[in-house]
Amino acid sequence: MIKKALCIFLLLLISGSVFAGDIATFLNLGFSEDSRYFMFGEYGLDSTTSTSYAELYIVDVTKNIFVQGGVIKKKYNIPLVPGNDGAGGLYSLLERNYSEIKRYDINHLVSGRYVYIRLNGDPPKSYLEFRDFNTGAEYAVTLEQSAKGSGKNVSADFHIKVSVTFKDGKKVTHTVGRPGYMRKGVKEYLIKYIILAPDSKSVVFVIEKHMVDSSGDNIRYMVETKKIY
Questions:
Q1: What burial class does residue 41 get, using C-beta atoms within 10 Å of its C-beta: 0-12 exposed, 13-18 middle, 19+ buried?
Q2: Is the dihedral of CA 219, 225, 228, 229 positive or negative?
Q3: Which runs of consecutive H residues, i.e. helices, occur in 55-170?
Q4: What is the CB neighbour count within 10 angstroms for residue 20?
Q5: pLDDT tier at 165 (50, 70, 90 boundaries)?
């Protein structure tokens, strides 16, 4: 009986590792010293091939666009054993693109301040409020989205409304994202993290994309940034 239970546990462990290939892992890779640029990465396993992938992104925080050469992707054709989550692919990609990273003065130790974290299992929230205790500013964030189609033919758009009330009572409102831009294969967006830049003048929204393709459901990440001050 013990041997049978152990075999079942190992099978579940192996199948869980394969399924995890559809769920990318997000990494905050830091800001530049002047808070102008933000770098993040994601990695995981392709459930159809059991091989790994890794992606790096460098964003101009003020412009909310990728810098030139700031999207770096790699798929690895090396089969992985159960228990390996594919993180090695990201480390290899970082090493090979060191000069590009230094070009934008990215410091992996300068990660900004997290003001919201959605833990796994937490219900998604379309409205959030928080205070930046360093500046006294209060934030109200609303995520608006819509979807059409179903299955592999689904597509969805989103945008974020950000209202900031400063310590002196002044209030500003911004719209972040691309209202009406339908991304194919995406069925839902969730706010995973909200990060304030080291200088507290900009905010980074880390968006969790729930996607569908021929292999099933997947989770990938993107960011939207906005300079507040």
A1: buried
A2: positive
A3: 87-96, 98-103
A4: 16
A5: very high
User: Measured between alpha carbons, how far is 208 from 226 in angstroms, rounded to an integer?
Assistant: 17
Q: What DSSP string runs through 157-174?
A: EEEEEEEEE-TTS-EEEE
Q: Where are the alpha helices (DSSP H) in 58-153?
A: 87-96, 98-103
SS3 (DSSP) at 182: coil
Task: Kindly state the tokens that stand for 137.
Answer: 């500013």
Structure-block tokens of residue 11: 């099978």
Q: How far is CA 52 from the centre of its chain?
A: 18
Return the biggest CA–CA distance within the chain: 69
Q: How far is CA 68 from the centre of its chain?
A: 20
Mean pLDDT of 142-146: 98
Residue 39 pLDDT exceeds 80: yes
Binned at pLDDT 50, 70 and 90, residue 20 comes out as very low
Mean pLDDT over residues 155-177, rounded?
A: 96
- Tally the residues of the chain: 229
**Helical residues (DSSP H) of the chain, grouped into ranges:** 2-19, 87-96, 98-103
| Torsion sign across C-alpha atoms 22, 196, 57, 78 | negative
Instruction: Give pLDDT, residue 50.
Output: 80
Q: If you ran DSSP here, which 8-state letter would residue 180 be given?
A: T
